[in-house]
From TrEMBL:
Signal peptide: none annotated. It is a multi-pass membrane protein. Belongs to the complex I subunit 6 family. Pfam families: Oxidored_q3. This is NADH-quinone oxidoreductase subunit J. Gene3D superfamilies: NADH-ubiquinone/plastoquinone oxidoreductase chain 6, subunit NuoJ.
Length: 185
């Protein structure tokens, strides 16, 4: 499992650097998803299976959907249609594809080399999870939620257009696309 830990850690560091250095928000989100999955791999390799599962379900699943909605909320308009066509070229997907394949190979290796750790299979209900998360780990949970909220606010402010004295819905381009009231008959 030491091999899986180092490979997942390396993939997490590389993809996190790509998240920071990439200027395209959609590509940065793809690398962030891979980074979160790699961190889940680190948790699994350390034997923290529940933390790894929560990492995949909560962060790589729910939080990334929230970030995708923020990117959609940025409303880049019609000017990026050609750019979106460029994103569909295979050479842009090679980097995330290779890193995802490495994570898949590490996951298959870890599953095949797994021996019985003595998991008894008792069910844990939601109340016990809540007590554990909001008991001794309440500070970590609250700090993570504040960090995610700050990230959403930064993404919104970086992506919006600055036009002094103009509300986004009052732009001339937006007004031309709206239907006039007399057309609603």
């Amino acid at each position: 499992m030491e091999f899986a830990f180092y490979i997942c850690a390396l993939v997490a560091v590389l993809t996190t650097l790509r998240v920071i250095t990439h200027t395209n928000p959609v590509h940065a989100l793809l690398y962030l998803i891979i980074s979160l999955l790699a961190i889940a791999g680190v948790f699994f390799s350390l034997g923290a299976y529940f933390a790894g599962a929560l990492e995949i379900i909560v962060y790589a699943g729910a939080i990334m959907v929230l970030f995708v909605f923020v990117v959609m909320m940025l409303n880049l308009g019609n000017s990026v249609v050609q750019q979106e066509r460029e994103w569909l070229k295979p050479q842009l997907w090679i980097g995330p594809g290779i890193l995802s394949a490495i994570l898949l190979a590490v996951l298959v290796y870890a599953i095949l080399s797994l021996n019985d750790q003595g998991i008894d299979g008792t069910a844990i209900d939601a109340k016990q999870v809540g007590i554990a998360l909001f008991g001794p780990y309440v500070l970590a949970v609250e700090l993570a939620s504040m960090l995610l909220l700050a990230g959403l606010i930064v993404a919104f402010h970086l992506g919006r257009e600055d036009r002094a004295g103009e509300v986004l819905s009052n732009r001339q381009a937006d007004m031309a696309t709206k239907r006039k009231p007399e057309e609603h008959v």
